[in-house]
Structures
1.
Amino acid sequence: MSESKVPASPLADAVRPRSLDEMAGQRHLLGPGAPFRRALEAGALGSFILWGPPGTGKTTIGLLVAGWTQENFVRFSAVTGGIPMVRQIVEEAARLRSAGLGTLLFVDEIHRFNRAQQDAFLPHVENGTIRLVGATTENPSFEINAPLLSRCAVYVLESLSREDIAVLLRRVVAGEEFRRRFACAPDEECVSLLAEASDGDGRRSINILETVCASFPGRTSTITAREAADTLSLAMLRYDKSGEEHYNLISALHKSLRSGDVDASLYWLARMLAAGEAPLYIARRLVRYASEDVGMADPSALTVAMRAADSYRFLGSPEGELALAEAVCFLATAPRSNSVYRAWGEAVALARERGSLPVPMHLRNAPTALMKDLGYGEGYEYSHDMPGGLVAGINFPEDLGEPEIYRPGSAGRERAVGERLREWKRMRDSLRESRKDR
């Protein structure tokens, strides 16, 4: 009887990064000088929560921190574990601590614990028996109880960009573990396709890579994007090494929307979906369009675009694609204004150029007697108590004056907004003049 072969672990687990520098994305946390990395290198990293979408590196970060601090790594799932198991882990952690070894308890999907279960961690986090690292895809403000949250720093992870995932896939393909399993490899067009199909999820990208390569046993030549698309049952759109066609199509959709051509907009949407483009990528671009090109001319456009994205997440394909089509029709036929887009650019530039100018005293909060004595909040006028609901004070830092940043357009709802702002300015100027005469 032949000896059974032990299945290899999933490729995604076998090729986890061995250092922070090998991590894909998350430069805002892990890059040189970034807050998380500074705290880790200074030995000042306590318990913390990692909040982000699936496949962004939460588990890997936990493993790397345990390796850096030389702590015992214990992985615990809030789905399958309970308080009795927590007690066992804590008892073992206390024993290891007495021997000079710390314990990092990594709790996957910590949001699935109820409030009482989360309380079980509190004393052990406080006395240092464990370093708690929680991973969640949900907003910790709503899902983690306040006492536990106050004892943990929260770090937000971002979906990986297409470029991040392409770098990740190239690193995996060049590694010893991949070459041990496969003689073939994806070409650059294929890497671009896989990066797009992964929708910001690094683990998913490696799983797709493994599926594609396993579909060509004995293959020694490279795998093309078309072959990968056929393997994944995707209708193939032309891709090139620079990814130009991908950007050409999304550009065609955006510019057709901007020109009000609803028919062409629907066509380009259909082209992208038929090519296997990630629907949520398209949904994100529709949300961007609603803010950038419709804006205050019809603020409900942003709601429609967001609801379309939520509908697709709820229904998936093909049913959810109809919600995207509805959003495209709405956006293409909506009045258009880029005044918010321009105003935001000016506001950001002004904030960066002028630096940290002091907040005017009348706008400052005064929660303590000392702050009140120092003049915080003095002169603030509560608009609801003022005639016409208007105040005469200036709400910018003194050195800025009152720059006009938002300039309403004349389309849709924004025409009325512009008229209202002009009337308010006239009334405010009149109020200031009347006060000067007193």
2.
Amino acid sequence: MKQAGGGTTLELTGVRLRHGVLAMGADMKNAVAMGYDRQVVLSPLTGPLESPEAVEQFEQVAGGFPGLPGRSPDRIAIDLHPDMHSSRFGRKLAKAWNLPLVEVQHHHAHAAACLAENGVREGLVLVMDGTGWGGDGTIWGAELLEVQEGGTFRRLATFAPVPLPGGDAAVRRPARQLIGRWIQAGIELTDERLMTLGVTREEAGVWEQQCRRQVNAPLTHAAGRLFDSVSALMGLAPRDITSEGQPAILLEAAARGWSGGDSQVLPFDVQEDNNLLLIDWAPTFRKLSDLAAVRKNPIQWAVAFHEAVARAAGVMIDYGLLKAPGRRVGLSGGVFLNQILTERLCRQLECAGMTVLRHRVTPPGDGCIALGQAVVAGS
């Protein structure tokens, strides 16, 4: 795949679309795409779609997107999540234009985009990000997928699900996420722990009831949420985040302060459930349950955490290779903007003789979603 002049026109190699597709992308980092045959044209990024102005701009771009000269779509692709602005507008366009609508699972789109950029139609891709509707009632975001020809995929490995008390409110306040993980791991919500987090007993009581009663506490598998929780535990994340990925960025910054030497090892459990490998991070939170001790030296623990995630990713990929043999794997998702994790994992995989496929034109975050939707829906 190469980038041509006059806008972002991607020439597909090894991939050919049987249908003309107008793809709506996602909400946080939105781009619209028009794909046909061996070309995909991407609009500039218009996200996040959080304000009326941003939504209006997106609708103008999507509704009047020129796409490829002389071509018009015969189907529209949207994210599987029912409440995204981009998905709602895609449904509106499909109805107005009398076109079929194709819903593409978020991480499948990530994986398909990564493979297409490397001229590959099928294979293993590890997708790690903060959120994506899985279609099974849970939030995905640490997914090893086998992308198959014909626009299908198989989920092979993920992180064990944990409750997210308050849903989106927990994303904005990482301490909520940490409380959910403590509850799942059987860690007592002592006054000392709550005081260190700046959480009142009343707040913790409400969040605990949400988790135990499964009320407004959706289950999440997402790697991004794991980073949030660890960042809060180490005292790095602010009480209320002000930008996307802020806790993870601060955690990575802490790890960059490591001067070398022996680092700690953080444990995790591995189990298989109905041909799906699960990485359970409860042992890590039990080991880090002494907040005062951890916060005395967050740098060494931040390094240990990055090493643990790289090891867990390796375990997931090894398992995937048993199900779908090969010697290459793609990496996609906003978590792979983290250079420490990405470099460690790539080095680990390459030392094992693997070929690592990474994004060449689109970003690993949600800016690649429209490309992946076009590839999947056009198959």
3.
Amino acid sequence: MSDGLDIVFFGSSLVSAYWNGAATYYRGIIRQLHARGHRVTFYEPNAWDRQAHRDIEDPSWARVVVYSSQNTDEVYQCLEQARNADIIVKTSGVGIFDELLEKAVLAYRRPDSLVIFWDVDAPATLERVRANTEDYFRQLIGKYDMILTYGGGEPVTNAYMALGARQCTPIYNALDPSTHYPVAHQPEFVCRCSFLGNRLPDREARVDEFLFKAARSLKEHSFILGGNGWQDRDMPANVKYLGHVYTKDHNSLNSSSLAVLNISRESMASYGYSPATRVFEAAGAAACIITDQWAGLDYFFEPGREILAARDGLDVTKYLTELTCEQAGKIGTAALRRVLAEHTYAHRASLLESALGLPTRSRTYV
């Protein structure tokens, strides 16, 4: 294969982050692929009310095709179009016709093309196939030319290889500095601490521990919670719930909070090496981040200087009690400097091209 490839993605959504935390991850990677001369088409279903909650219009750097979630006719039309691509990518968690797509992309592979499974929730996938030896996907792993993951480091890579993967490479979340950057404080977002994350079964208990426990201990301070699904959840009176926060408001939220809290899902924390998209977004805004601890954190940030690591809600409470504006500013500035130097999507695109065996098209990381 040569540079300037035709690449097709079957994913959850490129244009909407509604119940779709991977949206900014896809955008960062695909924008950089376009910048390097590759042509990308993103097929996504009209599902989960995402098209009614778009964050962006169809971008200039990718072709977006929305297909029906009600029948399979349009799915197969998309697959027929995708047959001509150099690379077909099926991501995890599309939410509609996942099993059909994961089998069909292999059937539509040409002898001179690659078919890749890109797992944006590898811990959950691995736990599922380990628990059920008859799981259909277990039999497909070795048929893909490559497995790419959202994170997970060696634990995820080794697990996939043990299940027969030909190749497995983590492509971590990162910063897109053209979309996430420091902005002026907005009064409606000013608070001691903010957390942005959808309500999910393997995150809720950790939100209780790291966010709500701290809020109950610091009744004199204000907290903000953003994300889908929390509207019927009991929470401390000093926690302001915003509901879904559109991508255009992330910079304002991150820049207006004294500290931004990162709370991993239980499955991600257990594997480690799985920094959330929100961590890099917050670092891009020069926010002071307090994160739950997980293996591999020091690969991305230096704890104590570029990020604050908390073992539990008591640690969060201690940080928020002692943190000054000056200290928060220094930590946020150091985090921004680190991600610009090592963790942008240009860095990730370079890694991806190397994994594909391509000469990288640029070493200028912007």
